[in-house]
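Fill in residues.
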């Protein structure tokens, strides 16, 4: 049973009102809400409904299937599963069990389909990862397995088999040293994991170390449990050594343990063929072909047996002629005369054939690498074409050859601005002003750079200086208006625009600008008048129209906005800005179908625009069409293969659809092409962490801080990994680096210091670190950390006092409120905990987290009916939360309804497979249903878990009793 809180486990408390101890835990409010809002599975149906309308027969059929499966009656199990899935096609336990059976039958492809279905609908990754691995092995997807399944920080039994599966993948890929290492890692984690010994035996056998191989096999066979795989390998080794009699004895033993093993029958058939006993060989081959008619190895042996048995005027004319001539020159002649490329580039540039000009300049510069004029021209062309990364590359080369050229420096600065690398943009633009201090253009460009980093005062100083050198420059004045607006000096912006408007009262653009200035200053009536006047002067003034439309939407008149935009569309049928605005309005009205229609239209007329792509992707997502979102993004990437943002978008889409390998591949490509590589690497690292590939994530994070030494998020991620590993040396060194960046006014370093001491179980120092963090100001993370330090050091009253103080200041902080209720219960103040949750429910009666905790508290207090009511309400509101399912199930189980609890616990385990408490509750419930064999296996896994839970002592005692009985 779950009392929801963040990764804390409650100590056991005796309570006569509850037959077994109750668990108090919550998964963290904000991560949970983020998961609900942002990570909702794309399927429109829920995982599966647990309610009164669901036929109980589905659960009965599933349990029958499970019993048959455990009795090795897979055909019966499949029949029961088909019945269950007919009643509820999205019953995940049935889907997962079907995958297990398909794996046993050697159908990895079919199993992967079932597993993908389950993953897309929220099944826990830890429940599926080993099954995915086995399915990949069956399909020979060795490289894919190695790219998506990595060791991490899961339970030891899962990590052990992951090492083993990686060993098998390496072995299948002929990387024997890696296979040996992975098998050994599995044995280091669990010396009794005999399958790893068989793997090591296979490696030894490949190296013809048959004696060593047999030692590994005999060690595996010394275990009490039958191991047909070991006998199969032993038979193969004997056969390799020419001991056919011993080989046949070994393979007969293997088949006596598992007569359905295809490899064993293939081996025996081959041995019979060697002995020219073709009838017996034929019998084994026929058994295989009856089950798998297209099995190629069996088909081959069958053939052996049968054989043994019977893809301007003159100027313009001159330029056209030059272009045509050069186009007709063979490529080898062009390469031998690179000046032809340069000439072709110049003439095409003057003729407006910019793409052809760029292509020939690029070819020219491959030969004449130091031609500054060609570099400058190519840089300008790349900027004009919008390929700022390519411009950046060629202009950097030009700058190395001619470091003080103002034109090159200006283009470099402007390219960096477009690439959002504002620090470097300002560096180059400032160098221009040092070379040309009185250049109005240089000062104006530098002002753009300063504005990009938020230094509006410096930007205004530069613009005022530029205005002195070029008083009548409209560009300077308009940029000055923007700087004043962005620095919230609206009156100064209005003064400039009013003067410009008064000088040209019929200038629609200036009237639009004046309307914007008035709107930003809060004078919406004057803003509307100015926009309307601009539209009277120019009915195609799209900017004014859009501003008016947005004002209508805000005022609740979206129909008026839509009508005015549609009328403008009749005059401007191919305007993507109007299409985009129409899509946005429909989206705001929750009319996602029409929003998508307009986003598609906007993209079709502006297919080079990433923002248009992003909106279209959002439209597909809003319409539950991830496939189309991925397809349109992939098509964009094919046309722009170096677009980092597109790769990031693609990666996020693959994450959303449960394909971490493709996501990580896209994030790696984004990091390769991103100018601000640190941010891209951080996204990659987070994806690797989400995929539990901690080793790769750690390497990526170190690359991130090397690339961007002041990216605090990367340091925080590394520190959290060190805390998870209780790595004192690395953790404190990283915290020191973070403190050097953030300074003493930021509490982050102190909070992380406290978390590190908590991991090291130095609760006194943890307490001092969190108190230090609170000296800089109120911080909920510091309070929650202080609560942990107090509780872990047995100072429950101090914990309650700290939480009560925060709750008094910030009663809306639900996370702290839930922790306070938990603390009351831990302190034995059960009535106070019950009353506290009742008060929380008065203000938030439908908050599932509060309902869940209220259920556990009331159950502890003996209010069983109220507890069941709260738990059921929580489950109705949030039906796919493992903690809530576990709470409801445990209440039902302890109220003598194990049959009601069982499907709830099955679902909870699918959602959170590594949770030992769910396994404990499921084990107890199964035992109540006289299913001790399965129950004992689950109970052993719960006890072996590294994670503590309140009932762990009781679980150990129960397991011992069962083992002795």
């Amino acid at each position: 049973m779950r009392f929801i809180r963040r990764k804390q486990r409650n100590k056991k408390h005796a309570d006569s009102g509850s037959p077994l101890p109750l668990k108090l835990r919550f998964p963290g409010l904000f991560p949970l809400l983020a998961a609900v809002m942002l990570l909702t599975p794309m399927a429109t149906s829920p995982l599966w409904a647990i309610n009164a309308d669901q036929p109980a027969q589905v659960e009965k059929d599933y349990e029958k299937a499970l019993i048959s499966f455990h009795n090795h009656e897979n055909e019966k199990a499949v029949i029961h599963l088909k019945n269950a899935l007919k009643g509820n096609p999205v019953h995940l336990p049935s889907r997962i069990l079907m995958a297990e059976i398909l794996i046993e039958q050697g159908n990895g492809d079919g199993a992967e389909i079932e597993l993908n279905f389950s993953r897309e609908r929220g099944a826990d990754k830890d429940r599926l990862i080993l099954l995915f691995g086995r399915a990949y092995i069956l399909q020979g997807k060795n490289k894919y397995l190695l790219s998506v399944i990595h060791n991490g920080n899961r339970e030891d039994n899962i990590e052990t088999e992951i090492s083993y599966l990686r060993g098998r993948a390496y072995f299948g890929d002929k990387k024997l040293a890696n296979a040996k290492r992975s098998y050994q890692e599995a044995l280091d984690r669990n010396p009794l994991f005999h399958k790893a010994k068989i793997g090591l035996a296979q490696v030894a056998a490949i190296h013809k170390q048959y004696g060593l191989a047999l030692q590994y096999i005999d060690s595996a066979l010394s275990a009490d449990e039958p191991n047909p795989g070991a006998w199969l390998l032993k038979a193969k080794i004997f056969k390799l050594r020419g001991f056919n009699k011993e080989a046949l004895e070994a393979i007969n033993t293997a088949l006596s343990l598992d007569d359905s093993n295809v490899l064993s029958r293939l081996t025996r058939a081959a041995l019979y063929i060697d002995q020219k006993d073709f009838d017996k060989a034929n019998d084994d081959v026929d058994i295989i072909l009856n089950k798998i008619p297209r099995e190629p190895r069996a088909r081959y042996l069958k053939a052996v047996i049968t054989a043994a048995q019977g893809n301007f005027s003159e100027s313009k004319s001159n330029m056209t002629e030059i272009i045509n001539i050069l186009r007709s020159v063979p490529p080898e002649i062009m390469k031998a005369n690179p000046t032809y490329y340069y000439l072709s580039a110049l003439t095409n540039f003057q003729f407006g054939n910019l793409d052809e000009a760029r292509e020939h300049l690029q070819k020219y510069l491959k030969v004449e690498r130091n031609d500054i004029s060609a570099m400058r021209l190519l840089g300008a062309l790349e900027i004009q074409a919008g390929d700022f990364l390519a411009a950046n590359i060629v202009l950097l080369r030009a700058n190395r050859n001619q470091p003080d050229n103002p034109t090159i420096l200006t283009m470099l600065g402007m390219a960096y601005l477009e690439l959002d690398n504002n620090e470097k943009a300002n560096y180059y633009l400032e160098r221009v002003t040092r070379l040309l201090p009185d250049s109005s253009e240089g000062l104006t460009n530098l002002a753009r750079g300063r504005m990009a980093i938020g230094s509006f005062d410096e930007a205004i100083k530069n613009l005022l200086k530029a205005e002195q050198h070029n008083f009548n420059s409209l560009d300077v004045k308009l940029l000055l208006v923007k700087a004043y607006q962005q620095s919230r000096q609206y009156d100064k912006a209005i003064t400039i625009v009013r003067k410009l408007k008064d000088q040209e009262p019929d200038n629609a653009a200036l009237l639009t600008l004046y309307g914007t200035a008035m709107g930003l200053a809060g004078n919406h009536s004057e803003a509307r008048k100015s926009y309307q006047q601009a539209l009277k002067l120019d009915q195609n003034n799209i900017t004014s129209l859009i501003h008016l439309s947005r004002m209508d939407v805000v005022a609740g008149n979206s129909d008026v906005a839509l009508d005015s935009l549609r009328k403008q569309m009749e005059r401007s049928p191919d305007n993507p800005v109007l299409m985009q605005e129409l899509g946005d309005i429909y989206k705001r009205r929750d009319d996602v179908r029409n929003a998508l229609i307009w986003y598609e239209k906007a993209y079709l007329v502006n297919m080079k625009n990433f923002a248009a792509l992003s909106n279209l992707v959002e439209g597909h997502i809003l319409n539950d069409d991830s496939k189309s979102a991925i397809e349109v993004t992939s098509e964009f990437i094919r046309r722009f293969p170096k677009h980092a943002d597109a790769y990031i978008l693609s990666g996020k889409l693959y994450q959303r659809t449960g394909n971490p390998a493709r996501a990580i591949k896209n994030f790696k490509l984004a990091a390769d092409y991103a100018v601000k590589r640190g941010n891209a690497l951080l996204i990659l690292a987070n994806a690797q962490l989400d995929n539990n590939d901690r080793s790769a994530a750690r390497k990526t994070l170190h690359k991130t801080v090397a690339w961007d030494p002041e990216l605090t998020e990367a340091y925080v991620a590394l520190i959290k990994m060190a805390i998870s590993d209780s790595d004192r040396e690395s953790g404190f060194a990283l915290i020191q680096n973070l403190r050097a960046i953030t300074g003493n006014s930021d509490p982050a370093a102190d909070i992380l210091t406290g978390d590190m001491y908590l991991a090291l179980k130095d609760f006194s120092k943890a307490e001092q670190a969190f108190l230090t963090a609170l000296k800089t100001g109120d911080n909920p993370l510091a309070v929650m950390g202080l609560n942990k330090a107090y509780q872990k050091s047995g100072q429950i009253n101090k914990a309650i006092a700290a939480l009560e103080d925060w709750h008094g200041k910030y009663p809306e902080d639900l996370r702290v409120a839930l922790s306070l209720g938990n603390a009351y219960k831990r302190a034995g103040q059960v009535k106070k905990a019950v009353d506290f949750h009742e008060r929380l429910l008065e203000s938030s009666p439908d908050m599932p987290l509060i309902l869940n905790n209220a259920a556990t508290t009331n159950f502890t207090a003996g209010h069983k009916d109220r507890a069941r009511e709260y738990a059921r309400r929580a489950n109705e509101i949030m039906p796919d939360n493992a903690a809530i399912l576990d709470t409801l199930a445990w209440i039902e189980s302890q109220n003598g309804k194990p049959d009601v609890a069982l499907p709830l616990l099955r679902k909870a385990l699918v959602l959170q497979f590594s949770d030992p408490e769910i396994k404990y509750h499921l084990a107890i419930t199964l035992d109540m249903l006289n299913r001790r064999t399965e129950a004992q296996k689950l109970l052993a896994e719960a006890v072996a878990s590294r994670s503590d839970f309140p009932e762990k002592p009781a679980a150990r005692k129960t397991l011992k009793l069962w083992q002795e009985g």
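Residues 156-172 form the longest helix (17 residues).
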